[in-house]
Amino acid sequence: MNEARSQNHDHDPSHDEAGPSRRSVLWTAGAAGAGLGLGGLTVPQAAAATPGTAGAAHDADATPTAKGRTMIGVPFERRSTVRVGIIGLGNRGGSMIDLFLAMPGAQVVALCDPVKEKTARAAKKVTTAGQPAPAVYTNGDHDFAQLCERGDVDFVYVATPWDWHFEMAKTAMLSGKHVGVECPIALRLEQLWELVDLSERTRRHCMQLENCCYGKNEMRVLRMAHAGLFGELLHGAGAYIHDLRGLMFDPKYYEGPWRRLWHTRLRGDLYPNHGFGPVANYMDLNRGDRAVRISSMGSPARGLAAYRKEHMPADDPSWKESYIESDRTVSLVQTAKGRVIRLEHDVSTPHPYSRINSLGGTKGLFEDYPERIYLEPDQNNDEWGDFGKYAQWDHWLWKEHANPPGGHGGMDYMLVFRLIQCMRLGLVPDFDVYDAATWTAPVPLSDRSIKANGAPQEIPDFTRGLWKKARPGMDSEKPEE
Fold first, then answer.
1. DSSP calls for 213-258
2. Torsional class of 52: left (φ above 0), alpha (ψ -120 to 50), beta (otherwise)
3. 307-328 per-position pLDDT tens digit
4. How far apart are alpha carbons 259 and 265 in whole angstroms?
5. pLDDT tens digit sequence for 264-283
6. CA–CA distance, 28 with 119 (Å, rounded to integer)
7. CA–CA separation, 32 and 30 (whole Å)
8. Measured between alpha carbons, how far is 398 from 406 in angstroms, rounded to an integer?
9. Is 338 helix (H, G, I), strand (E, B) or coil?
10. Whole-angstrom distance, CA of residue 352 vs CA of residue 342
11. Secondary structure letter of residue 122 according to DSSP
12. What would you measure as the largest C-alpha separation in the chain, in angstroms?
């Protein structure tokens, strides 16, 4: 998130604005150019075409034959120390390294970024934390492959611009490494299927590191939902609504400027994971229910052009860009059980930050931003109740770490803590490659639906039928150390 400010209402939303923030530039891109406009980067061929276009679409829709056994329920190998390699050391990677270094049982052994100054700053953090000097890889855009091939790396963390996520995750798994990627994990359906197949074939976990799933409110609602307090679940909503206009036109923030350029290529929901992930967890998607189709509509693209007209000089390179991304994308996802999930995306119009984060059932509902709740029999007078009175339902992570360090209200810390804990103790991860693919599928499918005037698009069953079986997920029990 800052792209996002606070990920928790108890945290002042303005707190993170000046410092490193969520999905900022994490891999260096050159000046805007043709095609993807990432000049200094040699963009992977698969990423060079716009998601959702014709071509590979029909192949992506078909369920490919499995090339390995499922990764559902597969634990990590137990280890006393988790050796981490980090690819991308900009705002996100450069701040997340602090949490890896603060985590007992984790060691940062290798760093990669083509900007040597960023790598040097991160390496200094490692030695200052009392760990041995890490290996560094700064020799061009593809030097990350050398990091992945190291024999002393257990987990690769990818925090780069979106265009590179698929290739880096693929390279890590083919090199025998577990991998966690900032969202979205890939941009095309065929890429999502390839990551699923590679995870199964290599027996390596490929995870969408969705920090919003670890938010305090999200985890409380999760436990309440699973305890039946909302009754039978019927509907939910999630979003990424965040005014990024100033940051997207800031040449020092999104280098390249890679993020703004996505608004010249795609009309759908560019960033569904923050909203979709938590609601998918509430409803146990891929664990007894699944997302089956999505229908999307989008407003006209006006916000970025209006901002440019008001704020950018006539000779700014952005005047060569034509924006097509809908300012507000609204999608409806239906599940196999008939539930409905609303997803929204808007980063180019004025609006207070919101992820909506809503869940409703036969006994009432919760809505976030601001947080409020209405559950029978506790509330029965048409007035919202106090969500703070349900603190007894906090997840054990938040009871054990009441005031966690790190950004976004502590959810970043919770994500890293739980990841390292699962790897040290040899536990099944809280979410897997099937969740990563499901949460990201709205990127290409919403684009396709908008171009088809809102026609529903089928969401692939990345589990190949195994979603029907209930299994654990984010609502974990505290493990014995």
1. GG-HHHHHHHHHHHTTTT-SEEEEEEEEE---HHHHT-TTTSSTTH
2. left
3. 999 999 999 999 999 999 999 9
4. 11
5. 999 999 999 999 999 999 99
6. 12
7. 6
8. 14
9. coil
10. 19
11. H
12. 65
